[in-house]
Write a structure and sequence with these properties.
The chain is mainly alpha-helical. It folds into two domains: about 130 residues, no CATH class; about 50 residues, no CATH class. It is about 40% helix and about 5% strand. It has seven helices and two strands. The chain has a two-stranded antiparallel ribbon. Helix 2 packs antiparallel against helix 3. The longest helix has 19 residues. The termini are far apart. This is Tesmin/TSO1-like CXC domain-containing protein.
Length: about 190
């Protein structure tokens, strides 16, 4: 059974009680006029603390080191959910958290969702997950399928390796594929912060 990392309210409250640095980062989320850069930086520092990183770590360096540790000690492939998030994913998560805190505080002149981790589309708002590519370009060229159909069998390289099909895949190109995550609206670079 794959290992799961659970970092939720309990772990956050424990760090809040124990760590002065964590409490400092939390204050940024409560401030009425924090900038997106301040919130992203505070969010990354808080995440590093939650994942028991050192004060000199970034999320990306921490993720890389944890990945290397897992590869060295595991006989199976590394589940992405056991690793810390990337700095790009943490940034947009932090922006959405800040917006939610401001909503809870009742800020009547609060920030606009499109400036704080959300993208507007026909169906409403969808969260921006990250603006980073899913993997380095070299890796995307190696791990892709070239299926002619909907990628529903283990003959699909992506399905066999337990990864979603992406636009880098051959004929399926993620659009008519049953083995890919379909977003409610297309991401357009102009719509992303």
């Amino acid at each position: 059974m794959p290992e799961k990392i659970r970092i939720g309210k309990g772990a956050s409250l424990k760090k809040f009680k124990e760590s002065d640095i964590f409490r400092e980062q939390a204050e940024v989320f409560y401030a009425h006029s924090a900038s997106t850069d301040d919130v992203a930086e505070a969010g990354e520092k808080a995440m590093v603390i939650l994942y028991n990183g050192k004060s000199t770590d970034t999320l990306d360096s921490l993720q890389y080191h944890r990945f290397c540790e897992k590869v060295a000690s595991s006989s199976t492939y590394v589940q992405p959910q056991v690793l810390p998030p990337t700095s790009g994913a943490a940034k947009y998560h932090s922006l959405r958290v800040y917006l939610q805190v401001q909503e809870w505080k009742g800020s009547t002149d609060g920030p606009r969702p499109t400036e704080w981790g959300w993208q507007k589309c026909d169906e409403g708002f969808v969260p921006i997950q990250t603006t980073l590519p899913p993997a380095p370009e070299k890796l995307l060229r190696v791990i892709k399928c070239n299926c002619q159909a909907e990628c529903s069998t283990l003959r699909c390289t992506c399905k066999n390796n337990n990864i979603e099909c992406t636009p880098a895949c051959g004929n399926c190109r993620e659009s008519s594929c049953t083995h890919s995550i379909q977003m409610p609206c297309d991401e357009d670079e102009d719509d992303i912060l």
